[in-house]
Write a structure and sequence with these properties.
TIM Barrel, eight-stranded parallel sheet, 8 strands
């Protein structure tokens, strides 16, 4: 199943409830929540108090992306405050298996992300352990960056491993996703699509609807399982 996950990093925080309601009205089923610490990535965003408030006001699946060092220190609180899935960066982990197990033991789905400079091969050993792999298509830390063409090969490679091994693992893409490249990304094998400024700048409901129309026209086969069940 293909999921659309608008990133609230690009939302208008003076009208956050409206923006969240609008993407749901437009057909989105996920909400992407970017957490940045100013250490692993240059920027600082938001944390548990914001997530806790959002979780009380929406039924959307809360896809929490931790771009932070030592994420294991904060997993329990993020999950307690409403995260349905928590994605951590492979680059930040000394013991990936232990952190993946910690997320599962706390009752959430586990995702593992890799940055543009990290080879796809480094995530392969963990595909049997996780619920979602995340390919960063820009260098994380700031919105409105251009999609890196080198992401294409990485998306296709990870998707092929998932198919070949018969795994129930979603493949998420994040960074630089626009109306003019989302169809290609889905056709390569991505099935969880994150977009930020292209959704929240302008007509949020209409933008969400148009993204979903583009995705539905991609012709991609449904190769993945809905991990929310």
């Amino acid at each position: 199943m293909i999921h659309f996950a608008p990133s609230i990093l690009s939302a208008d925080f003076t009208q956050l409830q409206k923006d969240i309601d609008d993407v749901q009205r437009g057909g989105a089923d996920y909400l992407h929540f970017d957490v940045m610490d100013g250490i692993f990535v240059p920027a600082i965003s938001f944390g548990m108090p914001v997530l806790k408030c959002i979780a009380k006001k929406t039924e959307l699946f809360l896809d929490v992306h931790l771009m932070i060092v030592e994420p294991e220190r904060y997993l329990e609180e993020f999950i307690k405050d409403g995260a349905d899935l928590v994605t951590v960066h492979l680059e930040t982990l000394k013991e990936p298996e232990k952190v993946i197990k910690q997320i599962h033991d706390l009752g959430a789905k586990a995702g593992l992300a890799i940055n543009p400079e990290t080879p796809a091969e480094q995530i392969r050993p963990y595909l049997t352990m996780i619920d979602m792999a995340l390919v960063m298509c820009v260098h994380p830390g700031f919105g409105e960056q251009a999609y890196l063409p080198s992401s294409d090969e990485k998306i296709a490679q990870i998707a092929s491993w998932i198919r070949e091994d018969g795994l129930y693992v979603d493949l998420e893409i994040d960074g630089g996703i626009k109306m003019d490249n989302v169809e290609k990304a889905v056709s390569l094998g991505a099935n969880v699509i994150v977009a930020g400024s292209a959704v929240f700048h302008g007509d949020t409901v209409g933008n969400t609807e148009r993204f979903l129309e583009k995705i539905s026209k991609s012709g991609a086969q449904n190769l993945f399982c809905d991990r929310r069940s």
